[in-house]
Amino acid sequence: MGNFKEDIARTEAFVFDVDGVFTDGNIMPLADGDFLRAYNAKDGYAVSYAVRQGYKIFIVTGGRGDILYKRFSYLGVTELHVNVSDKIAVLSGIMERHSLDPENVLFMGDDIPDLCLFPLVALSCAPSDASVVALKKACWVSRFPGGHGAVRELAEFILKSQGRFEEAVMKRFNTEL
Question: What's the predicted TM-score (pTM) here?
Answer without folding.
Answer: 0.92
